[in-house]
Design goal:
Keywords: Signal. By secondary structure, the chain is mainly β. It has one domain (3-162). The protein contains no helices and 13 strands. The relative contact order is 0.31. Mean pLDDT is 83; it is low at 7-26.
Length: 163
């Protein structure tokens, strides 16, 4: 049996979007700013005959099937700060758009694994204070029977917009 390690959500692959807010004459547009502080990391595991690994936004890690989780201090959700471009307060809600199930794959030199069931905490952001809001992102990765060992990486588009 060989150990695997899977990481996701590299900051270079993030897509950010913003929309204009109604403003008084002479005021500038405010944008949503997304700053990554850690990547989604599924940790080390043994594949055996396959199953799934889930990392929740709170950091809980679980597996199904014959996937055996190994100690992985780095495993955990992706964490971002959602703020505004001018550092001010926004009374606008923020819409979070996550990828469709299985549209993102973690890849290595010899294999890939699909991601699904993306979830955030908080699920909704009703306003953005001056200090920003911490946003955690978790997901489930499907591990195939006989999954080739290696370091798996990928990018996950995460889109945030003012509503």
């Amino acid at each position: 049996m060989f150990a695997h390690r899977a990481f996701a959500l590299r900051t270079g692959g993030l897509a950010m979007a913003a929309c204009l807010l109604p403003a008084a004459p002479g005021a500038s547009a405010q944008q949503v700013v997304l700053t990554a502080s850690r990547s989604l990391d599924f940790g080390r595991f043994i594949a055996r005959s396959g199953g799934t690994i889930t990392v929740s936004p709170s950091g809980a890690r679980s597996s199904t099937g014959a996937v055996i989780l190994l100690n992985s201090s780095s495993a955990g959700p992706a964490v971002f700060n959602v703020g505004t471009s001018n550092g001010g307060v926004s009374n606008k809600a923020v819409a979070i758009t996550l990828p469709a199930n299985s549209s993102i794959r973690m890849t290595s030199a010899t294999g890939s694994m699909p991601l699904s069931a993306f979830v955030t905490s908080p699920a909704t952001i009703l306003m953005v204070p001056a200090s920003g809001v911490t946003l955690s992102v978790g997901a489930t990765m499907t591990v195939a029977a006989g999954q080739p060992r290696g370091n798996y990486t990928g990018s996950i588009p995460l889109i945030v917009n003012f509503q």
